[in-house]
Input
Amino acid sequence: MRRSRIYAMVGISWLALTLATLAHATWLALFIAPTEETMLDVQRIFYYHVPSSMLSLVFPYVNLTASIFYLAWRRSEPLRALTADAVAIAAAEVTVVYASISLTTGMLWGRAAWGIWWAWDARLTSMLLLWLLYVSYLLLRKLSASGQSQTLAAALSVFAAIDVPIVFLSIRLWRGQHPAPVFGGGPNSGINPAMLPAFGWNVLGWAMWGIFLLALRYALERRRQESEQESALKAIEDSLEIAR
Amino acid sequence: MSRILNDLRQDASRARSYFGQVFLHLQKDLRLEWRSRDSVVGMLFFALLTVIIFSLAFDPTAAVSRQIAGGILWVALLFAAFTALNQSWTREQRNRVLEAQRLSPAAPSALFLGKALANFLFVSFVEVVLAFFFIIFYNLHALGQGWMMMLVLPLGTWALICNGTFFAAMGLRTRNRELLLPLIMVPISLPALLSMMQATTAILTGEFDPAHWIRLLIGYNIAFTTVCLLLFDTILSAE
Output
């Protein structure tokens, strides 16, 4: 009981810290960062679009790592494997959330800057494919039978992780309209240094928010697993009562 | 009687090596298909229908058909493959054959490889017949290096069938088996589908070089065949 109270305290203080960081980041992004010369205020969506895109590429690794641990522990330590599985499902859902935000903010920006909502350009298509992969992962979990869905999902996660680099390579070969990479994309890349604090704080704030979501979803999944185990135990006990 | 015993003895000696096991599984699947011819006839008719629907929808001239035929060919094959893949594991469920397979000391990946090879042969047969219909209905002849199709067709088919056979096995014990297969197979196969469609279009139009796409397909096949073989045991025994 005391332990769960500590977890709750840590969670609430983490949430408070996250909200404070996000408030500061929003203030920097909307009021302090200089207005861009050609795109004007439309450019400010960059502070939300880029961090979400970056994070939607990070959480799949969490999902893959957790899935590999699940597969390794599945037979030897089934209870520990369940915690790995809870991390895997939480990471997959957070991936889908951030990829959706990245796609939505990208479309809003595209409408203002290019005049169209969507272009079948390399990076848009790869992000869409990434989103599709993790939606299919969640669908598999929803549709498969409860006893085996963890194992099947872990296997699919390995497939998805191998597929991601191939997707990026193939789409790059296919198309080449999205602005060139802002960071590390050649001599003229990089942003006005005055924009960096707003960008950095937003990356930090949204990363903290993602970790918060991950932890919250993990705790939820653990509770679901525990209640499932309890009801299974109860069913066994009841059947023993009847036998007696 | 002695002939049957002789056959059994031969089979048993074959089953000792891994490729012997693969061959036995392949032989069993081919024999089953030869007796019923369900999947091949089903796939063939389904693919033909898809090709006809596309012709009605786009009413293509010879020049246009060259641009779109690569896409249509693979879409037709993809849809047709779904019908066969869903059936291919259901066969093993009758009389609880699959449970027996799981109990047997034979390597589970041999079962997978045998079935994937059998499905590959079925789809390849459908391709050969379909190619004939394409030449008739779309008035096609390749402007690029036509011989390269001999490379793209098997590579593309294996890319679809290897993962498809694996995912069909994943769906075996789920509700909505028929629904699940396309939902998980298509997102994973998208880079392969893109490669085979682009390579085919490159060969038919002769406008660009298909080499990159063929290389990508080879890489895709190597990566996913390995993963399928390594993970099949896990999937088969998932409870």
Helices of chain A lie at 2-32, 46-73, 78-113, 122-143, 149-174, 196-243. DSSP finds six helices and no strands in chain A.
